[in-house]
Design a protein that fits this description.
The protein is of the alpha/beta class. It is about 50% helix and about 10% strand. It has helices at about 15-30, 35, 50-55, 65-75, 75-85, 95-105, 130-145, 160-185, 190-210, 225-235, 240-260, 290-300, 325-335, 345-355, 370-375, 380-390, 410-430, and strands at about 40-45, 60, 120-125, 145-150, 265, 270, 275-280, 300-305, 360-370, 395-400. The strands form three sheets. It has a four-stranded parallel β-sheet with strand order 2-1-3-4, with helices on both faces. Strands 8-7-9-10 form a four-stranded parallel β-sheet, sandwiched between helices. Strands 5-6 form a two-stranded antiparallel sheet. Helix 1 (about 15-30) packs antiparallel against helix 11, helix 8 (about 160-185) packs across helix 13 (about 325-335) and helix 9 runs antiparallel to helix 10 (about 225-235). The longest helix has 23 residues, at about 160-185. The radius of gyration is 21 Å and the shape is globular. The model has no long low-confidence stretch (mean pLDDT about 95). The chain binds iron/sulfur cluster (SF4). Iron/sulfur cluster binds near residues 129 and 371.
Length: about 425
C-alpha cells in the first residue's frame, strides 16, 4: 500500500516561483535574440561566477551547468549524453559536460527550445573542480572562442589569506577586466560595479533569512528540493540586478508568512503534511527524476532543513556579503568561498554545524556518480559528522542528469531504511 504524508490541498505555485520562472525564461529569450540585438555573452560556471562584473559591462552570462540541469528536467539529457558518448566521451565523464556537448551538437538549442548564442568569451573561473578546465578546453575547440582563466586558490588550510586575495584581484585587474573590455567595447566602470554589488548584498541578506528559516519547527521550507528554486536567480544570471533584489524580498515575505502560520514546505503536490524527520543533505540532487525524488521525502514527512548544494554558488550563512566598498577584493573572496572550493575538514565542520543548528535527525549523502568534486571523501565525511553529532547518517546514490543512474526502487528502499533507523534511535533514546 502506498502511503502519503501530503495534504489534500491542490498544488499551487507561490508568486515568487512564478516570478523566478518568468525571469529565467526572459533571460533565455534575450540570449536567443542576441544575434539581432547585438548583446554579447560570456559562458561561465556557477561556482565563482562574476555576474556583477559581467553585468557592469552589459554582458549576459550563460551557465552551462544550468543549461544541462534544465535540459534534464525537461527530459532531454538522455539523448544529449548518448550523442557525447558516441563521440567518445567516456561513461565516467561528468554528465553535465556530456549533456552540454550533446546539446551543442544538436544545434545548441537551449532548454526552453530557443537557440543559444555562441560564446563571445569563455570565462573559466576555476573553483575547486578540475572538470571545469577540461569542459572549457572542449568548448574552446568547438567554438574557437577566446578564453580567460581566473585561477582561484583552493582553501586547503580552511581560510583565505591576504596573499590569496591579492593573487585573485591581480588576475581580475590584469586579465579578466581587459578581456571583458575587449569583447564589450566598454571601459571598466567601478562605480557601476559598486551599485551592482550593493544589490547583491541586499538579495543575499534575504536569501540567508530564507535558508535559515528552516531552523523553525516545522520548517517552512525544504532547503534542498525547494532550496534549488530559491538559489536559482542568485546563482545564475541575476546576482546584482534589481530583479534579484525584488525576487528575494518577495520570497522572504512569503516565507515569513509561512512561519507565522506555522506551515511546512510546499511540495510539488501542495502543502506537506506533518513534519516527521529533519535531515541535512550533502551532494547535488538528481535532476532527471527531481519531483519523484522529492516525493520520496515528502511522502515520509521528511524535510531537508539544510544542504550543501545550496552553497555551491556562494556560502552566505557564515556572514559573507558582497561588499561594494571593496569591489574586486569582495569578488575574490566570493570565488574562494564557494562550497566546491572548501577543503574536506571545512565541509565536515559545515555539515556538523548544520546538523546541530537545524536540530536535524541526521545527515543524508546523495553521492553523485559523475561528480568527483562532491563525491570524493563523502564516506569519510559522513562517518566524521556521525561521530561528532551522534546522529545517524544515510547514503544513497544517483546522478545529476543521466537517467540511467536513477534507480527509484533502490533509493526508496534505502531512504525508508534510513528513516526507520532514525525512529529506532529515537525510541532507544526515549527508553
Ligand atoms: S564534476 Fe561536479 S562540480 Fe565539476 S563540473 Fe561536473 S558537476 Fe560540476
Amino acid at each position: 500500500m502506498v502511503t502519503t504524508n501530503r495534504s489534500a490541498a491542490p498544488p499551487q505555485k507561490d508568486s515568487s516561483q512564478l516570478r523566478q520562472k518568468t525571469m529565467i525564461a526572459e533571460h533565455y529569450a534575450r540570449l536567443a535574440r542576441a544575434g539581432e540585438t547585438g548583446d554579447k555573452n560570456v559562458y561561465t560556471f556557477v561556482p565563482g561566477n562574476l555576474t556583477e562584473l559581467l553585468r557592469a559591462f552589459d554582458l549576459l552570462p550563460v551557465l552551462p551547468e544550468i543549461n544541462a540541469l534544465q535540459s534534464a528536467m525537461r527530459g532531454k539529457s538522455r539523448e544529449y549524453i548518448a550523442i557525447a558518448e558516441k563521440l567518445g566521451h567516456s561513461e565516467d565523464v561528468c554528465t553535465y559536460v556530456k549533456c552540454d556537448l550533446g546539446m551543442m551538437k544538436s544545434g545548441n538549442v537551449g532548454p526552453t527550445g530557443e537557440p543559444l548564442p555562441k560564446p563571445d568569451l569563455l570565462l573559466l573561473s576555476y573553483t575547486g573542480c578540475f572538470t571545469f578546465m577540461k569542459w572549457f578546453e572542449i568548448l574552446r575547440q568547438e567554438y574557437d572562442a577566446p578564453v580567460v582563466m581566473l585561477h582561484v586558490p583552493y582553501q586547503s588550510e580552511g581560510k583565505i589569506t591576504g596573499a590569496m586575495r591579492d593573487y585573485v584581484v591581480k588576475q581580475l585587474r590584469e586579465e579578466v577586466i581587459p578581456a571583458l573590455e575587449k569583447i564589450s567595447g566598454k571601459r571598466y566602470d567601478e562605480d557601476r560595479l559598486r551599485g551592482l554589488l550593493a544589490n547583491s548584498a541586499r538579495a543575499e541578506d534575504d536569501l540567508v533569512f530564507v535558508l535559515e528559516s528552516a531552523k523553525h519547527t516545522p520548517s517552512p521550507i525544504d532547503a534542498y528540493f525547494g532550496g534549488v528554486y530559491y538559489i536559482g536567480p542568485i546563482f545564475t544570471a541575476f546576482r546584482g540586478t534589481e530583479e534579484a533584489v525584488d525576487y528575494y524580498r518577495l520570497l522572504r515575505s512569503e516565507v515569513s508568512e509561512r512561519i507565522e502560520r506555522g506551515q511546512g514546505p510546499v511540495t510539488p503536490d501542495g502543502e506537506m503534511g506533518k513534519e516527521r524527520f529533519r535531515v541535512v543533505v550533502e551532494g547535488p540532487p538528481n535532476w532527471t527524476s527531481f519531483h519523484q525524488f522529492w516525493r520520496m521525502f515528502a511522502d515520509e514527512g521528511a524535510v531537508v532543513v539544510a544542504s550543501t548544494y545550496t552553497k555551491v554558488g556562494g556560502v552566505y550563512d557564515t556572514g559573507f556579503r558582497h561588499d561594494p566598498d571593496h569591489p574586486l577584493e569582495t569578488l575574490a573572496e566570493y570565488c574562494m568561498g564557494c562550497y566546491t572550493n572548501l577543503s574536506l575538514p571545512s565541509r565536515v565542520e559545515m555539515l556538523s554545524r548544520y546538523v546541530r543548528d537545524y536540530s536535524a535527525d541526521g545527515l543524508l549523502v546523495n553521492s553523485i556518480k559523475s561528480c568527483n568534486s562532491f563525491s570524493a571523501g563523502q564516506l569519510l565525511m559522513m562517518r566524521e559528522v556521525e561521530s561528532r553529532t551522534g546522529k545517524p547518517a544515510g547514503f544513497i546514490e544517483s546522478d545529476l542528469v543521466d537517467p540511467r543512474y536513477f534507480s527509484a526502487a533502490n533509493i526508496k528502499n534505502r531512504l525508508e531504511s534510513y528513516f526507520q533507523m532514525i525512529e529506532q534511535r529515537r525510541a532507544g533514546a526515549g527508553a
